[in-house]
Amino acid sequence: MDSQIRLIGIFWVVLSIFGLLIGLSIAAFLVLGGTLADDETALPVMGAIAIIVMLVFLITYIPGLIGGIGILKHRHWGRILTLVMSFFALLSFPFGTALSIFTMVVLFDSRSLSYFREEDYQRFIERSY
Predict the structure, then answer these.
(1) Number of domains in the chain
(2) Backbone torsion region of residue 37, taken as left when φ is above 0, otherwise alpha when ψ lies between -120 and 50, otherwise beta
(3) Out of 59-63, 71-75, 101-105, least confident range
(4) What is the CA radius of gyration of the chain?
(5) Predicted confidence band of residue 102 (pLDDT cuts 50, 70, 90)
(6) Over residues 94-120, mean pLDDT
């Protein structure tokens, strides 16, 4: 169970960083397109669109990154945030759906609750080995 929970945290961190990099790339290409255009209004318009796109990607992927880090640090709020994000990620077929199902199966298991309680964490680790 410990390795599965750790794997969930790693997957959410990697997925979130990958999503943020995609958002940054899209925003950079939009600004580059506005710069290369011959029209003088293209850069402000494309810059505004790039800011909006980047904000959408930030709002979408920062909670998953925070939740994944919380899972890796054995925090109860990380479990809750990751479960909430997994409900939203169900619509992201195929990787988001697979990660969400795996996250829900592992984190809804009653044995995973003791992993996130500070006082029970040491006993959980001792039982695992």
Answers:
(1) 1
(2) beta
(3) 71-75
(4) 19
(5) very high
(6) 85
